Amino acid sequence: MSVPPVCNVCDKEEDFLVNMGNLKKLMEYLNNYKCKECEIMETKLIIEKFIDTQTNNIRKKDKSESINSKTNFYQLLKVWKFYNKENFDAKIGHVTKYKGQPLIYLKLYDSYYHLNADTSYRGIENFLENRENDWQIILNAVGNRNLVTNRLDGKAIKHFYLYKLK
Ligand SMILES: [Zn+2]
Fold first, then answer.
1. What are the tens digits of pLDDT across the range 84-133?
2. How far is the CA of 3 from the centre of ligand 1 (A)?
3. How far apart are CA 56 and CA 63, in angstroms?
4. How much distance in Å is there from the Cα of 31 to the middle of ligand 1?
5. pLDDT digits (tens, 9 = 90+) for 17-64
6. Residue 43 lies in a domain
7. What is the distance in A from the centroid of ligand 1 to the CA of 9?
8. 38: CA distance to ligand 1 center in Å?
């Protein structure tokens, strides 16, 4: 089956066809498809809202300003990584102010997740490398099952502190 993708934001139909062997993959692609223009627009909005371009930190946001898709979440982390290029010690948040605290929230279906301020460059890098994998909820450092990983081996990602709220 070959179909032209339609942008989920502006409804523009593309003038090329996509064809994938796997129907599930195709549906996922089509359901998340955005045209170039909308993708650029969305990236701009993410930067404006979440990146403090003075410090290159992610701004602290309340639950009421949750990110609401994995795609946007990965996009934000990608942008942050770009702003902090190869600064391996960089933390996503202002650590003296927000150490161990939720910096941003993510809402997927009915579940909330929070990413803590002391998450750092290496952790983000590893999480982005594994972005094609499903998420698993594993035991945290004190034995509660609420830590998110996307590593295939189900181990925690070092320096990456994403927790699922009960
Ligand atoms: Zn569009």
1. 999 999 999 998 899 889 999 999 999 999 999 999 999 999 999 999 99
2. 17
3. 21
4. 13
5. 998 888 888 998 999 899 999 999 989 999 999 999 999 999 999 999
6. no
7. 5
8. 4
Question: Could you tell me the distance, in angstroms and rounded to a whole number, from the CA of residue 79 to the centre of ligand 1?
Answer: 20
Per the structure, the count of domains in the chain is: 1
How many A from CA of 54 to the centre of ligand 1?
Answer: 30
Residue 15 within any structural domain of the chain: no
Q: Using CA atoms, how far apart are residues 118 and 96, in angstroms rounded to an integer? A: 9
Q: How far is the CA of 43 from the centre of ligand 1 (A)?
A: 13
CA-based nearest residue to 84, from 130, 128, 114: 128
Whether residue 155 is contained in a domain is answered as yes
For residues 106 and 148, the answer to whether their CB atoms sit within 8 Å is no
What is residue 166's predicted lDDT score, i.e. its pLDDT? 77
> 13 CA to middle of ligand 1, Å?
9
Q: Is residue 1 part of a domain?
A: no
The CA distances from residue 161 to 28, 54, 110, 129, 134, in Å, are 27, 24, 20, 16, 17
Q: pTM, whole model, 2 decimals?
A: 0.84
Range of the domain at 114: 52-164
